[in-house]
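Because discrete structure vocabularies remain unfamiliar, we reproduce here a specimen of the format, pairing a chain with its fold in token form:
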Amino acid sequence: MSEIRAMGEIASGALKPLVLVVEDEAALLTMLRYNLEKQGFRVEEAADGEEAMTRIAETMPDLVLLDWMLPMMSGIEVCRQIRRRTMTRELPVIMLTARTEEQDTVRGLNVGADDYITKPFSMAALLARIRALLRRSGAVPAKGELRFGDITLDLAQHRTSRNGRAVHLGPTEFRLLEFLMQHPRRVFSREELLDAVWGQGIHVEPRTVDVHIRRLRRAINGAGERDVVRTVRAAGYALDTEQA
């Protein structure tokens, strides 16, 4: 299991959590994107329920901000489908709605929403709820420790160890391992890893990821130790203790 200690605000230099905002009101969507990006989050958008499910399948977010009233498919149905699917069952969901009746709140929570906030709302309150959920899900590390199995990543001292032995990583391999440890067992394509680790807008060949994955494997996997970096043919890479 992945373990994160001493979590709080998004640490300087840490990889940014991805929030999917599902909202059909353009002005509110713009406001949410602006404020979330200002606070250090990456943001994806969807304007209806069907687009939301497509986005989730393509670029698994760390949290979903989900409007109740949506075209094509309601927020309630989107949340229900998220909870039905094995890969998204634990995905944090906050529902946004103008409904204030207690029975509506109960209905939203009963289909699997983790939290519920009514419009109009304070951005400070929404951000606090987002951070609280991400801390619980392990998506927001602070300057503490990340753990996966027998691997420990010390974010404050920028040190890595496995089974008590020091592991020496270059800066890129450290960021790559940090990202994978934040999202254990989730498969990422080369393009997704480039965006997350190298940064969007940076022109690097996708095969560069393969080079750094090989370096990470050589460093992290000692003699007799299980290879924790799983290659998924035609899909990408994941941090996993079980090889396919």
